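Narrative of activities, Objective 1.

The group set out to show that a structural description can be obtained from nothing but a protein's sequence at a throughput compatible with the screening campaign. Below is one input-output pair from the validation batch, recorded exactly as produced.
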Amino acid sequence: MKLLEALMTGLTQGAMVALVALGYTMVYGVLKLINFAHSEVFMMGAYIGLFAILGLGGAGNPVIAGVAGTVIAMIGSSLIGITVERVAYRPLRGRGKGALTRITPLVTALGVSVLLQNLAQLLFSARFRPYPQLFTGTLHLPVVGGLSTSRAFILVASIVIMVGLELLVQRTWFGKAMRALSTNEEAARLMGIRTSRVIAMTFALGSSLAAIGAVLFCLDQSQAYPTMGVVIGTRAFVAAVLGGIGNIKGAMLGGLLIGVLGEMVKLTDYSGGVDVLVFVVLIVVLLLRPAGLLGTSRVEKV
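Output recorded for this entry:
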């Protein structure tokens, strides 16, 4: 029974990590940029969601507060993501030669991450802010099959969102534009694709997914605080690399694997070493498959 409960909890945890990992992998797939500021967008989404849910009535009006608060968090995080891309990354595209084209945006991403983290401390203080329990009272049901109703809702919602994202990327014009831009930016521009607009939309979409993950994560088990993006952001980045950075299905798989692995470790005497084991697994996988579980190695002409 404990094993089943840990498995279901791990899937729930992994689904939330996967939502954040998708932001890393989408941006990398389009720009070949590791957006380390994405973890802080996750954190800002948690704060926006918290204030929105409280302003809409919190536990006294759980359905409207939860849904509308999440939508507001998505919009707010999307605006932050677009602003970061417009101010910090867009001016750097096309500048420099050789290694500088990769290193400069990477250093900028780290700088933006620190900036957002300190901005959150300045605006919201360093104290922990608990989320209202929307799944208690009228919405709470007994645990069924080792999974509470709240976590069942989170798991189903995450899976639906990830399936919807896959359909968006594979079946819509925006998805085709993303894939074209990922393959060759110059060729995509020559085909009439407004690359700057597609890149901004990619940041917006990835940031909104991070906001959903932040609200679900905080409603389930956490509080909002300025450094909350560090742990989840690190696990999400590992999930993206583990599954194959730039591969959407790989990010989903990597997030689920990390969630399940972490819960299984907690059943042992080494429950405090979850992150250690996660990184050990990452190293082993990259030694055997450098492109990740679902990633593919491509030959680039120079």
